[in-house]
Every structure is written in structure tokens, then in C-alpha cells.
Structures
1.
Amino acid sequence: MSEISAEQVAHLANLARIALTDEEIQHLTTELGQIMQAVEKVSEVATPDVPPTSHPIPLRNVMRDDVVGDTVLTTEQALAGAPEHDDTRFVVSAILGEEQ
Amino acid sequence: MSDLIRLSAAELGAKLASGEVSSVEATRAHLDRIAAVDGAVHAFLHVNEAALDAASDIDRRRAAGEELGPLAGVPIAIKDVLVTTGMPSTSGSRILEGWIPPYDATPVRKVREAGMVPLGKTNMDEFAMGSSTEHSAYGPTHNPWDLDRIPGGSGGGSAAAVAAFEAPIALGSDTGGSIRQPAHVTGTVGVKPTYGGVSRYGSIALASSLDQVGPVSRTVLDSALLHDVIAGHDPLDSTSISDPWPSMAEAVRRADVSGLRIGVVKELDTDGFQAGVRSRFHEALELLERNGAEIVEVSTPNFEYAVAAYYLIMPAEASSNLAKFDSVRFGLRVTPEGGGTVEQVMAATREAGFGPEVKRRVILGTYALSAGYYDAYYGSAQKVRTLVQRDFDAAFANVDVLATPTAPTTAFRLGEKLDDPLAMYLNDVATIPANLAGVPGISLPAGLAPEDGLPVGIQFLAPAREDARLYNVGGALEALLVDRWGGPLLNQAPDLSTHELKATEEGVV
């Protein structure tokens, strides 16, 4: 199960939107294989009769009325940290490439 | 060294209340100390230029007769994982360099409302991923006991700041031990509250089902006082517990271990722990026993699988949480040569803005969550989480608190484990189970390891919502140990003044 190929790591990097270099991919392929081998230990005790836990403290979902709250940011505040904006919106580069 | 910086937060608060000292004097003394030693320690990523203004505001309010809390006017250091208005918040990452958030994290808002004076933001492993601060994009923090050694992580900056007397008290965050393990290696106190006890609003998330904000200090009472300030329900955090909390400070003041049943976790009392760590641990237990506590051995067979489960759950949640760093709303943007689509800009930004450990965990988490592997990895890890909780439930049916050494070794040398991620991950073997189960934990100094003279911590764990038990046993043990040592453990730390001119140049922002 822990056999991980460089192609798989390249695919994961693409899914995670990180433009890894070839060198990083090689390095991570080795490391991920080692780490997965260590963490696979969980399967020794994770038998079908054990229910999974997603959250440490049992909680009920929290709902509120669908109205504007009192802690909303102004447009200016929301844009203050953006790399690029036009005073009303975030600015990004093209969503589609030329071939699309 | 100014006497003001040697005071505990509680002592300083009392002097401020009586008018013997002003907050401006106390704040200036700490800023002077930071200027003198932080070149060598590098606990801070940013020092707050507005600190003296905040201090003089508190002095004015006190002079006007305003009713103020016990920590009003006391300076505090804030881990850079918490967002702050007026101060950059980077979470130790290049991708957020220089970002000034438009709001305060709830724990930050609460310490400001309590009249505390933020001194600045402390160094940490990037996005809290690490046990040594060596994964900070801005260079490591150095342990005040030995500047060639790690201060623990991820909250090494907050722990080193209080250990080096640069701040009396600090805020930290703990996902797998990031408050408790730095406390262990720096001879300080750190508490991870019950999950949901302190709001996570404005804490830059690593793993949302594990993260918890908590206090870092030199004394158990100081952590309790800060815990009382930051705890409580917050409608802005949907996992915030709505129950009221008893006073933790009161638990310390009434500390008494007679009749307390303390369970020693058999699986975390083995040869895998350094000899001096174990000997100080057992001496502390004997001291508690002589003072009326009952020591019982307990078994938690599934703790053995906790680290493996953690290194699936945490990267899985992190890979999802870190998707927000997309070069659109905040932080860095890197455009590939010749331009590119928004996706290519995103990938180039994340390649340039994330360090190696962050990339490692994001890729690992993406893998653990991917189709075909989800059940085998993430699903199995969630089952282990159930088993670890069952171990805690069984143990707490028989004892009031559990005790373990906080971490397997004393502070190791900077660089020693940097190239071996698996060895680094094992630092958290004793702290991770509490995060998986959401239960609270404290680490406090137990002494120095005879073989290397470095600090050793002891950890106590309590059932969820029973944080006050930690302050009871911690307060009692601290009083007994300080009595035995003839003063706080940090009195034995080397004087940093000889290092004042040896300022390290790397990474000071």
C-alpha cells in the first residue's frame, strides 16, 4: 500500500496546487513512502467494529438566523491584504488558458 | 537585569494594582530585555511599536479609578498563529509575510480587554508544523538554557520568550503538543485546555479538530490567570463549549493533592524515554505520594497507535485548511515567467511561499484523503481516535488525572533531527493522545536531567472539561518542587547577558 511513485507525487502536487520542482518530487517520493509505511500501523487496530471519531467533543451543529452579522468586514478591510484589487473586487489573472 | 522582568505575571499584576509600578515601566523593562537578548534568542518575529501606548492607556485608566482585572497592565507575548490588528501575522510562513489582519483573534481580543499589553508576535514552526521552530520561514528560536539547542515547537518562541524573561506570560497553540513540549524543554509551564474551552476564532488553523489555544508562563498560577481570561463560549467558533468554567486561579490557590488518584501511563514510562526524564518524573510522583496522592499504574494500549493516527488526521485537515492560501485574498502572489492562469499563479505562489515541511504535510494529507485511499488511511485513523478516547475513558473511570513525562528527551541540538521527519514526529508521542481525545493537559518543570543539566517537564492529563484538576495537581507539585529547589527552576538557567552582544543575524523580521 505504501509504494508511492514519483508520478503519483506529481499528481498530488497538481491537486494541491504546488508547483514542485523535479528535485522536490524525487525527495518527497522517498519521504512519503517512509512516512506512509510508519502510519499504516493504524490498520492493525482499525477493525470494522470500531466506529470512527471525527471530532473529540460531541457537539450539535450550531445554527443562527440568516441575517448580516455584526462582525462583518468592510470592503476596504477585506481587500486590505490582497495582492491585487480594484477597490471593489479581488483581481486575479485569467481563469482559462489560451488552449481552452 | 531589571527586577521587574523576574516577577511572575501575578506578582507584577499585584504591584501594578497597588500603584508601586506602572504598566509603562513594566512594559519598557520587557522591551529593553527584548532589545538586549532577542538577537541571540530570536523568540520574536515582530515587536509591537504600540506597546508603550497601550501601557500608558492602562495606567491612565487605573489612575482614573477604573476597576481592572488581575492581569491589567501586564505585558504579554502572542504566538504568531493568532491574528492581530496592528501587528503582522504570518504563522511563521513566507506566504503571509507582512500581512496585517483586519481583525483580532478572540483570545487576543480578550487579553486586550483584560488590559494586558501585547509585546509582539512570537516565532513558531511554519503553520505550527514542527517540534523545534526550525521550520519557521524566519529562522529558528534558540533555547535560553543552551542557545545551540531547540526551544521546542511549534510554540518555541512563546516558551523561549517567557524562559528568557522577555515576557512574563504568553499565548500559545497546541495541535499535538506545541504548548506542552516547548514548556518541557525550556523549564516553563504550558497548558492545552479542553478542546472548545478557548475560542479558535482568528487562530490560523493547522488541524481544526485538534487545535487549541492556551497559556504559556513561568508559574502554574500565571497560566491559570491567563486561562481564566481567554476561556469561555464564543459564538464565532462553532466548536466552542457553552458551559461556564470554574476559576482556574482558585484551583491553584486551593491546590491540595491529598486523596487525589494519579494514574501513571505504563505505555509512556519505558526505555524509550531518556533516563533523566524518567528519573525526574518518578521523583515528582514520589513527592506527590508523600503528600497524600495515590499513585496507580494504568494501561492505555491504543496510545501506541496515536502518533500514526495523528500523522494522518493532522496533514489531512491541514491540506484542506491551507487551501485558503491561494494568492487571491491575502499574502504572497508569485506570477510565473510570462504570466499564467490563476491556477498556475496559485501553484507558483504556493511553491515559493511554503517551506519543505508544509509541502510534505500538504502532499501527505492530499494523499491520505484521495479516492481509493481514504478508508484505509483517514478512515482508519479516525477509528484509532475512538480507541484512544476509550483508553482515556477507561483510565479516568479509576483515576482523577493521568501523569506522563511530557516528551521523550530534553532539548536536542538545532539541526539534529531536521533531516529525519519521522524522528521529529516522535517528539510528540506523549502529548498527541490528549489532542486526539480533546482532553486538557499541562506541562510543568520537574527538574533538570542529571546527564545534561537541561529542563525536564511532567505532564498531567484530565478528563474533558476538568481543566481545574490540572491546576490543582500542577499548583501543588510546583509548590513542593520550588520548596525543594529553594526557588524556581529558571533561577538555575544561565545568565543571557553574556550573549547580549552575540546577536544572531538570521531571520529577524
2.
Amino acid sequence: MLDTAPAVRKASGRRSSGRARRRRGPRLGPYLLIAPTVAVIAILMFWPMIQIGIMSFQKVGNRQLRGEPAESVGTENFDTILNDPFFWQTLKQTVLFAVVAVTLTLLVGTLVGLLLNKLGRRMSSVVAGGVMVAWATPPVTAAIIFTWLFGTTGGVVNWTLDLLPNFLVGGGWADYNWFATPLSTYTVLTVCVVWQACPFVAVSVLAGLKSIPGELYEAARVDGSGPWRTFWSLTYPMLKPIFLVLVVMSIIWDFKVFTQLFIMSGMANRDAFNLSLYGYSEAFGSLNPKLGMGSAIALVLTVILLIVTAFYVRVMVRQGETK
Amino acid sequence: MKYIKVAAVAAAIALAATACGDDGGGEEKGASKDPAQLKVWMMGEGTTEQTKFLDAVEAEFKTKHPNTDVQIKYVPWPQVATTFQKAAAGGEGPDVTELGNTDVQSHIEQGNLADISGEFGDWADGKTLNKTALTNDQADGKTYAVPWYGGVRAVWYRTDLFQELSIQQPKTWAELTAAAKKIQDSNKADGIAVPSDQTNALLSFIWGNGGEVATKEGDKWVGKLDQPQAVEAAKYWSGLVTTEKVAPESYIGKHELQGPQRDFALGKVGMYFDGSWALKEMKKLAPKNVDKWGVFPIPSKTGGNAPVMAGGSDLAVWNDSKAKAAAFDYITVLNNAKNAKAWADYSGFSSMRSDVKFSDPKLEAFTSIASNTKFPPISAGWGEFEQAKKVLPNAIKAIMQGKSAEEEMKKANEQANTLLNAS
């Protein structure tokens, strides 16, 4: 992966000299170019990841942070977690949320992308601008805005629902507490996360759509294909690589949602915890951090993510190859 | 090949999931006598008035240490735990710091604070400090911090509604319920705000019924939350929402600043639990309602004032400080009689000095309430019990949503037994 992309470019530009050099020995250029990036990623990401891996088998608290050697506890952290019914509850909530949110993000995002492609230039820049605002909003800001929207005093959502006729939505909305139960909390969370994530999907889909030659659509129309058929027989197969990446990234993003949930319901609502919040509350929740425990939870989350993505990627690639 | 490529992309993206932030900072330390710089950490967001007050303190401090530059850093309360963790781990701590009094024992246990027994003994003003608050700053006969200011909570109520509905100041639990019911039934406001995440007020009900969170037996903490007194208090507190229906459900899962304070200031709820410092915040929210607010003590079950949790802040010298003497000098200036008075007047918190009194008449009730204070278990594990696990708030939430009080309090008690004794 490291050498393919630059190699192609170089070959096209300076064919003769490139060929000559390749014969003489291994080409260092691409590796040198990518070295700074790899170094930064290694320091900022791989090293902490390795640390998390080590710490998950240790007891790490304040004493250890101040310099005392960390004491190895074997798999005790993992035993504690896996035997805690609370862990399974948070895991269930994490997975369910990811399934719902990823589905909705891709659905809404694709529809918005198709819409953007259909619209005229002026209208599409208006829609794209609106969509970009959602994308550009930092998660903290978005979470606070949604907490206000769904709040009890001055919350627009409750106010609107209360104004609507009772036979439509039921009554008593004025004081409805969205953050009291996990289901309603996650409803708000899903709306917030999907709102923020679908612009990226929309823009990626739009970019893909622009690259499909218009003749293909013309041919489809001549053959009498409707929009539904056109999408599944033409657009979707053409954009499959893009969808693959989008699905994988959405799964990763939605599995590790933290900021929004932390702001919306926080530490006082353990029944609405997901894995990230559980890990945070163990590791950083009080002045007595249990970093070993937190690392173990983070490791479990990472492993689950890698398995899920690897499995999904495999399935997609297999399908692509047989076709 | 294609598979490897995609897998590599996937792995790289997955790794992007973990980001880590850290900030550096210069380490400059002068001689031990008169350091070039003294780092002071204050908790909370900080305001212009507070900065002005601290500037005056610095000017006074400089008459003794002309070459020392005092640097104030405000640490917002929600970031306190992580900021101190970083300070302890990275050695980038303050010289002098304010500490929430419930965290002092954790800090002592972790060796974050300098032993200031000697300096404290030589400080004449030390004798004026509140004795109960001082015990919380000591361990094994040594002093690690000094009390600065304290705050107690009471019931804020709407004087106009009480008058209009001819409600007397409630002296027992039954009268409190009756008062809330009258307000609720008048349809002018909700009766009372009872959030699930307000341990400080809940404790007054547990204590006001003769209950305890835990007591020390030998050198072990023994949880008392499953005892009938505590269970009854939890039932009463939750029952205001569930059975009496005089408190709205909208505060389940929230604390007093996530609704109750705002709604009380705006006139949507008749009573709520908070401290003297709330007045300044509520004035900002609804300046025209100021005349409608009054305060009465949290009643105990059968009559009289319930003990209240002594919340507040203390001052300590950080153990890694290289200028401990100057740091303690700063504390003595910050907490001398003149500055203590100025601070109380600005902040609305009562000074922990016996010679400094509240002057605002609206806050007078708090002075008498403050004579009956109590501490939650003085244990390093309290931080985890209350902040990380939020054991009581989550138990109360479950009870408010229909779980059995006996069961939930029993579970909370098991947590207390484990967490309070953990080292």
C-alpha cells in the first residue's frame, strides 16, 4: 500500500529515468516521503496503543503515575470486566446504537448525496452549505445544542410536541425528560450523531456520482430503467468501493461515540452508558484513576472494532471478486 | 492484495480513533526563599471580580515577596479530576492550590500535598479556623491543608407563593410535602425540585432521619445505607417525585444546576435545594424576581434542622512545589481577615474563619444552618463512590423509576463497603 500510489505517478511522468533507476536497486524516495507521517503516527498512535495494551494487564493508579512501578495483575482486569453484568449491558447498548446509527447515517447521507447531484447549481450550493454547517459543528457544540433542543425549560422539541394536537403525538410533552431513560437518551443521541455524520457520507457519495459517466445513465434510461432500478443496478455497483469505506468508517465512529453522550447524560446516568463512557468512568472518573481497568475496556473496544471491520471488509472484498 | 489494502486502511482509521492530548509547560523555579514565580490554581471558571480580588491579594503578597510573580490558573470544576491527575503524573503542578474539601483526603492519600503542620502551627490566624473543617485536612496528626471557605445548602423558596397560599415554614418532612403539594395544586408552579443527582441534599435527609452513609468501625468503613433510616430517607426523597407527585420527573438524571436552579429563578418551581452562592447566579438569570426568594433550613423528619453537608474549599501547598515557604505565605495573605471578608462578600460563600461573618441579610439564614454541619465519610474512596461511580445518584434514579428502594440501597451499600475501604 505504501509504494503503489506514488510509483504510478512517477512512472507516468518520467518514464525513462524511473525505469533506469529501478533496475539499479530499491527505490528509497517514496519511503523517505512517507517516513515523517509514519513517525508521527507511530509516536502519537501506535505508542499509546501499545501502552494501553501493557496497562490493561496492570494496576495503574495515582501511585504508579507518580513513579512507583506498576504491579502486574495478569488477566484480573479482564476477569473483572467480563464477569460484570454492567459491561455486557454497556456492550449491548454500544452495538445496538452503532447498528441503528450506521444504517441511518448511510441511508440519509446517500439520499442527501443523490439530492445534491440532482439539484441545479444554486439550489445545490444552498443545500451543500446547510449540510456543511452540520459537518463543521464540533461535537461538543452539537451535543450542547441538542441538549437544549430536547431540554425541559425552553426546549423547542418539547414545546413543538406540546403544541401539536394530542391525538397525533399524545399529551404531557411539556415536562418530558428525554434523558431519563436509555431509550430516549439514545434516540436524541442518534439524531445528533446522524445529523453530524451524514454530510460526510453525502459529500463522498456526491463525489462518486460525479465520476460516473453520464452515458451510462442515458443508456439505462433508454433501456427503460426507473430510478430505483438505476440506483441498485448502476449507481450502487459503481460506488461500491466508496460505500465500503463509508460503512467501515461509520462503524468505527459510532462505536466510539463519547463526547455527545457524556454531555447529554453524563456520569449520573449509568444505565445509559456505552463502552467508551464505562471506560472513561473507570479510568478518569474520580481522583483515584484506575487506568489499568480503563485500558482493558479500551482494548476490548478496539478488538471488537477490528474484528467487526475485518469481517465486513472480507465479506465485501469476496463479493467484489466473485462478481 | 486488494484485501490487504483495505484492511490496512481500516486498521489505520481504527487507530485514528484513539487520539491523545497533552500539554507541556515550562518548568522554572528560583531559589527557595523568593521564587520568581508562584503558581496558584483556583477552582471554577473565574470571573473578572475574582481576578480583581486576586490581584489585590497579589499586591499585598508582593509587599513581602517583591520579586515573586503570582500566576493564577482557573481550573473549571468538571476538569478538576483530570487536571490534578495530569499534575500528579507529570510534575507540572501548582505551588498553591484550592481543593474541593471532599477531595482533600484523596490528595493526602496519594501524597500530592505538602505537610504544613509546622507552618500552620506558627500561623496565629490558624486558631480562628473552623475545627470540623480542619479535621478533614488532617491525617495521622499532620496538617496538609487549611479550610478557606464553606458552603451549606438549604431550601430556597418562593416567599410570594408561601404568603399567597398561607404556607408556614416547613419544620418536618410531612410539612415539607404538604407545602410542596399546596404549590403544586395551585398550578402556579411545580412544588419542589428533587433531582436524582444531588447527593449533598439527599445526605441531609439521611442524616436528618438518624441515618449514615457509613461509619468507621476499627479501621474499616461499614456501610449504613441499607439501614431503615437511610432507606426511608431515599424513599421520602424519591417519593416526592413518584408517589406524592409534587416534584416533576424532568429532573431525573440531572443535578441542581441542570434545571432546578434555572427553573426556580424563572418561577417555574416553588422550592429547590442549593447554597448561598446560588443567589448571585439566580440574580443573573432573573434579576426582577430577587424579592421573591427566601431560605429556610432543610427540615429533619420529626422537626428541627437536619445536619447539612459542609461543602467548600481548602487551600494546600502542592508537594512537588519548590517554593513551599512562599506558597504558605500566600495562603496566609489570601485568608487574612480582610481578604476573607472581601471574598465572602463577593462569592457568597461563608468564610471558615470564626471572626468573619456574613453581611448580606438575605443570606443570614445560612449562618445558623452552618452551625450544624456534617462530613460524608472522610475516606479516599469517597471520590470514587461519589464522582466516578455516582453510586447514590444512580440508586436514587433507579428508585425514582420504580425499582425497589430496599434493593437499590442494599446494592449501594455493598458499593460503599467496597469503595470506601479500597486503597
